[in-house]
């Protein structure tokens, strides 16, 4: 007898041996003593479905569950057969609170340091034109701003402002103008609200379900894929594609963190309003700068791992549904399945899509708004950039590419599922015209009506995602930007724009 193990990708073999009981020990027992031996099942199991599930659990589910443990969405040691110790249960309470504190720190700190330098007006141009003024202009500016210019650090009670010169006043004004964040609500607070809501939904979802919907979908898909379909397109191909998704997600997290580190390095790892001395000179070698930088990188890593967890959960669900859809569609095209069995499987496919359109779709929809905002902002900053330095161009390009790539990947996965499911209706029309073995006209009409009401559509924001819609929105957005460039509403010093 074989059963799946929860903490190992191998199955278990349970051997039962009967031995005569000892009447001198227990004279009232009429049953024999039973000896049970449990051993691991190696990869010589003849069932290909079992081997595929074992491989998928080892290479896909285990890394994904470790990712969920990293961001606090899954308790540590939950797969162990032993009861959790008091220390581990205490860790499972403290660790999510720590993750929450790191996220709140990240939300606050990015506003203070103007994370990413995302102000279109001040962060796309240098201050050389302001600095190249005459001596008379400097004196005039110093007198004018002597009573108004200053930084937040001077607004401390009990401290008098030090004696300043006109040139120092100009320097302080430049620090104030170029360091102060603009459009804080739309640039930082609103996206952070979206990110926090997605985190809470994901925490509740994975703490309740423990990621079982993905594994149950894999089991159902692999079981329904018969040997003929395995030879045609292969379960191993689906597993390789899921592994590729996990690899691309890891690369995306590393690139996004590296892009943020590049931004901080260009801005000397900190904000001038935090790290300066009493004379308003920026301190270069203060240890707190690098401590805050390290904590900020850790927070950003956790934040982007949350993005990766939501996207991987959604993308893997879509890929398994695509695999299931293709298995049913090939059977219908081969006319090797009766209509009643086909309707049962399509109905089961509709249930899987409905599960995808529930909590997973809500998390994904919220982050899609986040990705769209970052992509549009990054594109505008890239076009309007007037800081002609190699590191700035690399940063602006990577920032736009990072958010556009994950946005296109998520929308592409949802559109693929809807597009593949629409082929069922076209197949049913062909069956109605050319007939189907052992099926009457009324049965074909019923099958056609069944597919029209099945609702095999993936939704984001409550709307069906189709390839045509994405292409239309993309072309419309491109045309809007072209008009904005032509009318100089969005201007750039680049000759080509």
TrEMBL record:
TM spans (from-to): 90-109, 188-208, 244-263, 290-316, 366-388, 394-415, 470-490
Keyword Cytoplasm found: no
Coiled coil: none
Keyword NADP belongs to the record: no
Keywords assigned: Membrane, Transmembrane, Transmembrane helix
Protein name per its UniProtKB record: Gustatory receptor
Organism phylogeny: Eukaryota, Metazoa, Spiralia, Gnathifera, Rotifera
């Amino acid at each position: 007898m074989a059963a799946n193990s929860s903490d190992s990708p191998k199955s278990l073999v349970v051997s039962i041996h009967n031995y005569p009981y000892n009447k001198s020990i227990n004279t009232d027992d009429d049953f024999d003593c039973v000896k049970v031996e449990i051993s691991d099942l190696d990869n010589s199991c003849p069932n290909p479905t079992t081997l595929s599930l074992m491989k998928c659990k080892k290479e896909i589910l285990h890394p994904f569950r470790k990712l969920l443990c990293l961001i606090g969405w899954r308790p540590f040691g939950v797969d162990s057969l032993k009861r959790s110790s008091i220390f581990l249960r205490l860790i499972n309470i403290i660790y999510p609170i720590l993750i929450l504190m790191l996220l709140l720190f990240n939300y606050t700190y990015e506003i203070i340091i103007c994370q990413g330098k995302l102000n279109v007006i001040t962060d796309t141009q240098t201050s050389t034109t302001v600095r190249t003024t005459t001596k008379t202009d400097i004196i005039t500016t110093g007198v004018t701003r002597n009573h108004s210019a200053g930084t937040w650090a001077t607004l401390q009670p009990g401290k008098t402002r030090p004696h300043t010169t006109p040139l120092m006043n100009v320097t302080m004004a430049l620090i104030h103008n170029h360091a102060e964040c603009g459009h804080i609500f739309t640039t930082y607070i609103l996206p952070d609200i979206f990110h926090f809501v997605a985190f809470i939904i994901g925490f509740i979802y994975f703490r309740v379900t423990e990621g079982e919907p993905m594994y149950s979908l894999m089991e159902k898909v692999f079981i329904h894929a018969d040997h003929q379909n395995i030879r045609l397109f292969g379960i191993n191909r689906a597993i390789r594609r899921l592994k590729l998704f996990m690899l691309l997600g890891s690369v995306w997290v590393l690139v996004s963190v590296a892009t943020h580190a590049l931004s901080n390095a260009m801005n000397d790892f900190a904000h001038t309003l935090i790290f300066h001395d009493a004379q308003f000179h920026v301190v270069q070698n203060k240890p707190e700068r690098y401590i805050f930088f390290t904590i900020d990188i850790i927070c950003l890593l956790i934040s982007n791992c949350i993005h990766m967890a939501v996207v991987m959960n959604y993308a893997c669900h879509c890929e398994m549904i695509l695999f299931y859809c293709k298995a049913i569609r090939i059977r219908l095209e081969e006319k090797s399945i009766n209509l009643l069995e086909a309707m049962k499987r399509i109905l089961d496919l509709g249930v899987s899509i409905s599960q995808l359109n529930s909590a997973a779709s809500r998390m994904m929809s919220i982050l899609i708004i986040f990705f769209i905002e970052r992509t549009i902002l990054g594109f505008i900053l890239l076009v309007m950039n007037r800081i002609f330095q190699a590191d700035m161009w690399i940063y602006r390009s990577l920032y736009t590419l990072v958010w556009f790539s994950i946005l296109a990947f998520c929308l592409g996965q949802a559109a693929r599922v809807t597009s593949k499911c629409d082929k069922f209706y076209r197949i049913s029309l062909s069956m109605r015209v050319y007939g189907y073995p052992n099926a009457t006209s009324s049965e074909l009409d019923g099958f056609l009506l069944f597919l029209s009401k099945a609702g095999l559509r993936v939704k984001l924001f409550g709307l069906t995602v189709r390839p045509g819609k994405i292409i239309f929105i993309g072309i419309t957005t491109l045309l809007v930007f072209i008009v904005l460039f032509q009318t100089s509403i969005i201007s750039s010093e680049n000759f080509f724009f």
